[in-house]
Amino acid sequence: MREQHRIAVIIPALNEAASIAQVIAEIPPWADEIIVADNGSTDATASVAAAAGAKVVHESRRGYGSACLCAMAQLNNPDIVVFLDGDYSDYPGEMALLVDPILAGEVDLVIGSRMRGEHERGALTPQAAFGNGLATRLIRLFWGVTYTDLGPFRAIRYSTLLALGMRDPGYGWTVEMQIRAALQRVPATEVPVRYRKRIGISKVSGTVRGVLGAGYKILGTIAVAALFANAMPRDRRLVLFSRWPEAGATKTRLIPALGAEGAAQLQRAMTAHILSAAAPADGRTSVEIRFTGCDRGVMRDWLGAEYDYADQGTGDLGARMARAFAENFDLGCDKVVIIGADCPALTSMRSAEAFNALSSADLVLGPALDGGYYLIGMRIDAAVCAKALLANVDWGSACVLQQTLDNAAAAGLSCAQLEAAADIDLPEDLPAWEEARARQRISVILPVLNEAACIASALDRLQHLENVEILVVDGGSTDGTLAEAQRFAGVRVLQSERGRAQQMNAGAAQATGKILLFLHADTTLPRNWPDQVRRTVAYADVSLGAFQFQVDGTGAAYRFIEWGARLRSRRLRLPYGDQAFFMTRSVFEAAGGFPLLPIMEDAGMVRRCRSLGRIHVLDAPALTSARRWQHHGRWRVSLKNALALLMYALGAPPAWIARCYGPRTEQ
Questions:
Q1: How many structural domains is the chain composed of?
Q2: Which end of the chain is more exposed for a tag (fewer CB within 10 A), N or C?
Q3: Which residues pair with 190 in a beta bridge?
Q4: Phi, psi at residue 507, to the nearest 5°?
């Protein structure tokens, strides 16, 4: 481990017996896991690598990307993944140069640039240098991100790697990663690394065929991404099997404990919970709901128009799942994962792990503790086996998992399994549901001071959300804010010492949710914000999240202000409090709460959270009222904000900054 973080190393290899042992020997001892993906070597690469202490996996499908995807499927939940070639051209001892910026919370992706570093004469062929230069210039032209190299020596945060949804099986792997990172606005940087002549002959730059093939693939990857609306294809489908929560017809085994209506309400809550928590937030996974018990319109009214809907159809569960696989593969999906609404342990991270496993396995299963499974996924290569895989299974019995595994073996399908988890089927399972519900509860904390003009509309937008608690913390308003807030049933109204930091800390102390969100009264959150918050905090490496900044005013000046805020948020990883900070309670407590400062308490909290994990800014915007800019002047407010941030960064006393900034008349 390095600084209490797990580090994994992936080495794709093809006929590297002469060099692989030296590469492994020079990897720093703090690397926890070394995986060599043998891509069909005809020499002793695999045995030499195993003798040197690496875990060896085999990928028969040729291609650099195929080998990397195969190795990724074997990772043991690291924090950071390092990719390294097996030909001894890189310097493994320089791995800290790539890993440390990620550990510091500065970026999520670090490319080792051979162009910026020292390289032996002849190590980088003219054709390789030309290809790198052309590709990186095209990336800068289309996406505005500057790279100098597509070097294979790189490090990336594991959760970010999963969210990228890598799929290229060949030479396009490195450029695909950098394009996807640009599209998803992943914070990235380059560091200079040394480069030497490889041992043996390069499979790419060492042959005319390799040069032409790599050039075609790299330029083709860039062209496809640029032509299709700057977006990579959404080729992954998450299918939720659920039913209309009709009393007496759903969760029947729980009726003795909850009653017919209570069991139906549980079904309703669990379906909403799974939709909120399980869909990967990667921009390329679509969600379909396969329903029964009502018509499409009723389901859409219940769960929202942003999902696709299809009737489960007739037959037993196996026939219905086989139909779902077949129909979604026919629509062009490469990977399809089916889940139920019964497993509260399902998170976006676990769904991403399932899709990642399908990069090297035909089938993935999430075993349930009762002998069934809470998740099943297939890739399109295995589509013809779906019906046979799910036939002759005793659904509802304790043999479901084993019978499915037997069917997979008979069909010659490779299978990966996720961590086992509990379904909620029987009364004794209910404590697990309550625990999961508590983990997903969001406490929204609004510090207010003289907000009578906007508090009612703010609370009206927040009411009636599933598993969301609302706390208004008043700092001594004199304009009727308190009375306005107290009109709303279910809203907890607290009073505190004046000061935004003091009020937010007081609200957190009284909150019951495991997720805390701090919201200004004049900020409107985007639609489906609870889902986005829950999915984000499910990634263990995220310490603090925030939304994108947007102002509700019109005109070029406001767009320029938004541009500056996005630059600050994305590049400096420094969002402001009006972007709605959110985090888990454990992170809040580990950070010691908001620092008790008269100003810049949000910047102080970001500074504290950086030492605990990654600062993640969502693409979805939180809309902030333009009232401050309208009242005090657009450029004056922006300049004051920038100067306050600069003075804080330079170490000026917060009390002095507050005097320069002027009094806060609202929270």
A1: 3
A2: N
A3: 111
A4: -65, -40
Q: Which residue, 192, 227, 262, sits at the end of a domain?
A: 227
Largest Cα separation within the chain, whole Å, is: 81
pLDDT at res. 285 = 81
Instruction: Give the per-residue pLDDT at 633.
Output: 61
Give the Cα separation of 493 and 507 in Å (integer): 9
Contacts of 428 (CB under 8 A, 6+ apart): none
Q: Do residues 165 and 88 touch, judged by C-beta distance below 8 A? A: no
- Specify whether 286 is located in the same domain as 377: yes
* Rounded CA separation 266/251 (Å): 8
Residues forming beta bridges with residue 236, ordered by sequence position: 285, 335
Position 12 scores a pLDDT of: 95
Bridge-based pairing state of the strands 33-38 and 55-58: parallel
Show the low-confidence residues of the chain (pLDDT under 70): 201-217, 224-234, 281-284, 305, 598-599, 628-652, 654-667
For residues 41 and 147, state if they share a domain: yes
Beta bridge partners of 469: 443
- Asked which of 227, 260, 288 is the last residue of a domain, the reply is 227
Angle at 12 between CA 8 and CA 17, to 5 degrees: 110
Specify if 535 maps to a domain: yes
Residue 518 tokens read as: 């701090």
68 lies in which domain range?
7-227
238: β partners: 287, 337
Which residues, including other chains, have CB under 8 Å from residue 597's CB and lie 6 or more apart? 501, 604, 654
Same domain membership, residue 594 and residue 642:
yes
Cβ-contact 110, 178 below 8 angstroms: no
50 belongs to a structural domain: yes
> Are both 218 and 243 inside the same structural domain?
no
Please indicate, yes or no, whether residues 412 and 296 belong to a single structural domain of this protein. Answer: yes
CA 73 to chain centre: 17
Residues 525, 483 share a domain:
yes
Structure tokens at 194: 């040394």
Q: Is the pTM of this model over 0.85?
A: no
The answer to whether residues 56 and 49 touch, using CB atoms and an 8 Å cutoff, is: yes
Strands 335-340 and 7-13: unpaired
How many Å apart are CA 303 and CA 299, to the nearest integer?
6
For residues 447 and 570, state if they share a domain: yes
> What's the gap between Cα 152 and its chain centre?
23
Same domain for 197 and 254, yes or no, is no
Q: Among residues 249, 335, 326, which one has the least CA distance to residue 290?
A: 326
Distance CA 169, CA 553 (A): 46
Quick one: how far is CA 193 from the chain centroid? 29
Residue 667 included in any domain: no
Q: Give the pLDDT score at 229.
A: 42
Residue 498 within a domain: yes
What is d(CA 12, CA 34) in angstroms, rounded to the nearest whole number? 11
CB 50 within 8 A of CB 133: no
Q: Nearest 10 degrees: CA dihedral of 533, 535, 539, 543?
A: 0
Report residue 115: phi and psi, to 5°. -70, -35
Q: In sequence order, what are the residues at sequence separation of 6 or more whose Cβ sits closer than 8 angstroms to the Cβ of residue 219?
A: 134, 135, 138
φ, ψ (nearest 5 deg) of residue 571? -80, -45
CATH number of the domain at 212, please.
Answer: 3.90.550.10
